[in-house]
Specification:
CATH class of chain A: Mainly Beta
Shape of chain B: globular
Number of helices of chain B: 5
Number of helices of chain A: 5
Structural class of chain B: mainly beta
Radius of gyration of chain A: 26 Å
Order of helices and strands of chain B: HEEHEEEEEHEHEEEEHEEEEEEEEEE
Distance between the termini of chain A: 59 Å
Distance between the termini of chain B: 32 Å
Helix content of chain A: under 10%
Strand content of chain B: over 45%
Largest sheet of chain A: 22 strands, antiparallel, barrel
Oligomer: heterodimer
Number of strands of chain B: 22
Number of strands of chain A: 26
Strand content of chain A: over 45%
């Protein structure tokens, strides 16, 4: 009886809270229905058109005695994504994107696809609760539900961005670290006049996998967050506290199909940001996130596997506003059994079948994913959730292969940032020194050192040139080491350098130049995952002595914002110096026309 | 680049009835110009995917076109996933969010491309006279893995469009070649000049075309049909887009390689009627054709809808029929006729063949009870003979004789309601030196007829309902299995906005 009384009290409190709420928040970065009320039209047509024509060739000693690999391939597509947005009233908005696509070389219907790429509806209930159903992009904290940025890029030169834009668009990657989901989402916010300034709540439920009506059950993910912000606690110092709570639960519906086994993964976290001092010159924050996860596998009602662990990420941030300088340092501890499907699923599937030259050589071995592939092949990327820790390539990322939520890491991170888009110079340095918490196959622990630096120099601002002239630099150094016996020891070093130049020779006509250079040398053991984050085995030591060089040049004409055509040539060389592994070259020429309207 | 297509030579009864959907405007346009609307111009264009760069009004009155891409002959999606639902990952892997990485035709990945362009200079007071250089190069990979194995062809020409003292002179003088790993490169010429004299100069307007095109000239993306050279055809096979094979019985002004010929045409207008007539005589440069082919103009369009010329995974035209001698292509079907006066040892022909065509056309635009009335007649006679004949003839000398007669009728019986009618008949007869049926011991003797009725109903300014019903019948009286009867009904509701 007491339980029912409690539920009744919560319901009444919620209704009162809704009634007094005075503000709502958009659930993503796009416009809320209310923001378009002044627009008289109720149906808008927008979209994207794209023509992409490529020719790719392969050469090098890898082709010795190879009679199967095509030396040259053409590819391309023509597509139109027509976005239809309708607002039948000022409380409701629906949108669909119809895709018409034809493959380059497909005539008279062959290779043509017409389908719905996106469909959603959203609105506001009682001027208080925002809802959205259908396709949606979800992001929470980096440890709970997050789409970590891909490896192989630091400060991407402009010449590589057109092809990366295609990857991002096809995989629904936004400016932030969202994941594309299908389901329902609710948000509402409250404002207060004393103590707390605001409280914002959000929840979502999405299906990430359908049942096959046999042994594969439907997989769902649900989650919610509550974010609170206080009033200024000390007006002299501008002291203020933001804190919140995140919860994500991924589970298999064992009532679907004939399935009897499935998983449960719950992740809970608490966030806090104490702004100790905030004035016009500087601000000081103490901030962090901590939480825990629980992973279990079910066979009917029996739990066949279970693990849980915690994480903590706390630090301080110092922002010198007058100097446009930001400094931050954190202590990070992510337990070896910490498992968060929504945050640890990677963008890059290193074991995916590549669209171009997936196999090459006389023995038709699977070709290792390279800088070239990462820069242009959408087939290597995904937005999906993986129930196992996905394969990674230590040449590109060994310290944080799964983003911030990489398990079995303890150490410190630090970063410094300078400037913004208005400055002549933008710079960002990130560093981390981490160790394993639990040895893998040994009691010895791996140590990781990571330094990332990115700089963008707006030369045109320095020399007062009216056209754009920009130089970009990205550099990453990573070292992995482990002591112990000869078998236990690990020593791997990698350097990744990016250089880019973007020169607007004439109005709207740009010359683009860029390069990526990777050098990796040493050895490491790459764990083989059995399931979830359980290591099955450590295959033999991976010896690495690789060099990859990607050069690109081209021109781009910008008709207007979002509409451009670019003609580019890319040349890539991979040298594998271990065991006389053959080297090869890849070249591509492409024309890409993109039109956002 | 281009496709031979002159709509004035085709009935418009059920050829996209909704084209120019604006009451009788379509039929009036056909009466005046032969085209149903400006959009018909696309039928002279080759389907192309790729990059086109066009420059115009450049210094010195120069302009240029450059292109790189694929045409249907070097495109294709062999082995592609053709079920569109399979392009989307099964729902158990990604919800229902689509991506396209499963869509992959082997052939389209091959580096089979066509490129070319033209450099043109305009001159004259109106800048409407031109001289141009045209070039095209096409290569098609022959092996899905060894892409160094490829066949290719190229064409280079100088084209002109002049007006000298009122005489319009157009033409193209060029050469081209074909080569492959199994066919040595050979160059051949393609020369064509066309003169149009106005009625004020010659009493009647005349259109005179002379041409000579070598059998070594090859272009599977051009207006000139280049399917006659047996050696090339054995090397390439029939490519997509081919409307016939061997010695094609051409339409008037249609160019075929391995021929030298002349075409003369004129027209005359009297009252509400217009008449035109054309005569053409051509002869093979070298004895090549062991097969002849002609187009089924009466029921070919309907047949091509039944025998889809573009099923998934095709590499050439579809051959169908009980005797495997009918060929389906885009909006048409043709018949292949095998000749028998060939060398018993080499299986090659030893006779050069002559092709004679007479094409007639009559158009009437009048009114009845103050409502528009149109009659159109298309007539065609053609023969293939061993020796040149002055007019199309069926005698012992002939390999083939073909004739068509088509009558179109359009009457606005009610406001915005146009009654349409059609009657067509075709007859094709093979000569003694063509294949005989074993049972009847007779050569080909085909009779095809079609009767059609229908209406155009303009429901609103830009909306129309179009109904056509065609009864068709075909019989080869010498080849008993080759006959059919059928109907084709189309109902189209079109709204333009």
């Amino acid at each position: 009886m007491n339980r029912y009384k409690s539920i009744l009290k919560i319901a009444i409190a919620t209704c009162i809270a809704l009634a007094v709420s005075t503000a709502t928040m958009a659930q993503d970065g796009s416009a809320k229905p209310s923001e378009k009320e002044e627009d008289k039209s109720i149906v808008n047509f927008n979209g994207l058109g794209r023509t992409n024509l490529l020719q790719t060739g392969i050469d090098g000693s890898i082709l010795d005695n190879d009679t199967l690999t095509p030396r040259s391939l053409t590819d391309g597509e023509f597509l139109l994504d027509l976005q239809i947005n309708a607002q039948p009233n000022d409380k409701t908005e629906v949108q669909s994107i119809l895709r018409l696509r034809n493959e380059f070389g497909g005539f008279f219907g062959a290779g043509m696809v017409i389908e719905v790429r996106e469909l959603w509806a959203r609105g506001i209930i009682a001027n208080a609760v925002e809802y959205r159903v259908g396709d949606m992009d979800v992001e929470m904290s980096p440890y709970t539900f997050f789409n970590p940025t891909e490896e192989g890029t630091i400060n991407e030169p402009s010449v590589f961005q057109p092809q990366k834009e295609i990857i991002y668009y096809e995989q629904f990657y936004g400016d932030q670290n969202t994941r594309r989901m299908q389901g329902a989402q609710f948000d509402f916010g409250l404002t207060f006049t004393k103590g707390l300034r605001s409280a914002d709540f959000g929840a979502f439920l999405a299906r990430v996998r359908g049942t096959d009506f046999l042994t594969v059950p439907t997989r769902l993910v649900t989650g919610g967050e509550a974010q609170f912000s206080t009033m200024t606690l000390n007006k002299e110092y501008g002291t203020k506290l933001d804190f919140g709570f995140n919860y994500v639960y991924t589970f298999d519906d064992l009532q679907s199909g004939e399935a009897t086994s499935g998983i449960r993964n719950a992740v809970t976290s608490f966030t806090g940001d104490l702004r100790l001092i905030n004035n016009s010159d500087y601000s000081i924050h103490f901030l962090g996130e901590g939480g825990f996860s629980r992973m279990s596998a079910k066979q009917d009602s029996l739990t066949t596997f279970s693990s849980d662990d915690y994480f903590i990420d706390i630090g301080a941030k110092f922002n010198i506003k007058s100097k446009n300088l930001r400094l931050q340092a954190n202590f990070v501890d992510v337990g070896p059994d910490f498992f968060s499907i929504g945050a640890q699923s990677k963008r890059v599937q290193f074991d995916a079948q590549k669209k171009y030259y997936n196999r090459a050589g006389a023995s038709q071995d699977v070709r290792q994913a390279t800088l070239f592939d990462l820069s242009r092949d959408p087939a290597l990327y995904t937005f999906e959730l993986s129930e196992n820790l996905m394969p990674y390539d230590p040449r590109f990322s060994n310290t944080f292969p799964y983003g911030k939520a990489t398990p079995n890491r303890r150490g410190v991170t630090a970063n410094a940032g300078y400037g913004d888009e208005e400055s002549n110079l933008e710079a960002q340095v990130d560093a981390a020194y981490m160790t394993e918490i639990q040895g893998q196959g040994t009691e010895e622990l791996k140590n990781f050192a990571l330094v990332k630096a990115a700089t963008t120099v707006h030369i045109n601002k320095m020399i007062d040139w009216q056209n754009g002239l920009r130089f970009t630099l990205g550099y990453q150094y990573e070292q992995t080491s482990r002591g112990g016996t000869e078998i236990e020891s690990v020593d791997l070093n990698s350097n990744l350098l990016e250089l880019g130049l973007e020169a607007e020779l004439f109005k709207n006509f740009e010359f683009l130049l860029g390069t990526k250079y990777l050098v990796a040398d040493g050895s490491d053991y790459i764990p083989q995952i059995e399931r979830f984050n359980v290591i099955e085995d450590f295959p033999e030591r991976t010896l690495i002595d690789d060099e990859e060089l990607l050069l690109a040049t081209g021109v781009r004409y910008n008709f207007k914002k979002g509409i451009y055509i670019t003609l580019q040539y890319h040349s890539f060389a991979a040298n594998r110096n271990i065991d006389d592994n053959p080297s090869y070259r890849l070249d591509q020429v492409f024309v890409l026309y993109t039109m956002k309207f | 680049m281009g496709v031979y297509q002159v709509l004035d030579r085709f009935s418009i009864f059920d050829r996209t009835p909704w084209e120019g959907a604006n009451n009788t405007e379509k039929y009036s346009s056909y009466f005046s110009t032969g085209a149903t609307n400006p959009g018909d111009l696309r039928w002279n264009y080759q389907a192309f995917q790729g990059l086109i760069i066009n420059g115009a009004k450049l210094p010195g009155d120069f302009g240029f076109d450059l292109f790189w891409g694929k045409t249907q002959a070097n495109g294709g999606l062999i082995n592609a996933i053709e079920d569109p639902f399979q392009n989307i990952p099964p729902s158990q892997s990604a919800g229902n969010v689509p991506n396209y990485f499963g869509l992959a035709g082997d052939r389209r990945y091959l580096p089979s491309t066509v490129m070319g362009g033209k450099l043109v200079r305009s001159f004259g007071d109106q800048k409407n006279q031109t001289l141009a250089y045209n070039g095209i190069y096409s290569e098609t990979a022959l092996d899905s893995v060894n892409t160094n194995l490829k066949r290719s062809y190229q064409v280079h020409s100088l084209s002109l469009d002049l007006n000298i003292e009122g005489v319009g002179i157009t033409g193209e003088l060029g050469a081209g070649n074909y080569k492959s790993p199994t066919y040595a490169e050979k160059w051949g010429e393609a020369l064509m000049l066309r003169f149009k004299t106005p009625a004020s100069m010659t009493g009647l307007p005349f259109d005179v075309q002379v041409y000579q095109i070598s059998k070594n000239f090859y272009n599977e993306n051009g207006e000139i049909a280049t399917n006659s050279n047996k050696a090339i055809r054995d090397d390439v096979g029939l490519t997509i887009g081919a409307t016939g094979t061997g010695g094609q019985v051409a339409q008037v002004n249609q160019l075929i390689h391995n021929r030298r010929g002349i075409t003369v045409g004129t027209e005359y207008k009297v009252g509400p009627a217009k008449f035109s007539a054309s005569w053409s005589l051509a002869q093979e440069l070298d004895p090549e054709s062991t097969n002849l082919s002609f187009v089924h103009r009466i029921n070919g369009l309907a047949l091509s809808r039944i025998y889809n010329p573009f099923p998934g995974g095709i590499t050439g035209p579809i051959i169908f029929g009980p005797y495997n001698r009918k060929l389906s292509f885009f909006r048409g079907a043709s018949e292949i006729v095998r000749t028998t006066d060939i060398n018993a040892e080499t299986a090659l022909t030893e006779n050069r063949k002559s092709f004679n065509v007479v094409d007639l056309q009559g158009k009437l635009q009048t009114s009845l009870f103050d409502r528009d009335l149109y009659f159109f007649y298309l007539g065609y006679f053609a023969s293939v003979t061993a020796d040149a004949e002055p007019i199309p003839t069926y005698n012992d000398n002939a390999y083939l004789f073909v004739q068509y007669h088509e009558f179109d009728f359009y009457y606005e019986i009610l406001p915005k309601f146009i009654l349409t009618g059609y009657f067509g008949i075709e007859n094709a007869r093979g000569g003694r030196n063509t294949e005989w049926n074993e049972e009847t011991q007779k050569p080909l003797d085909q009779l095809g007829t079609a009767v059609g009725v229908g209406f155009d109903w303009m429901l609103a300014e830009n909306s129309g309902l179009y109904f056509r019903h065609r009864w068709m019948q075909f019989e080869d009286r010498s080849f008993p299995l080759d006959k059919y009867r059928g109907r084709e009904v189309t109902i189209e509701l079109k709204t333009f906005f």
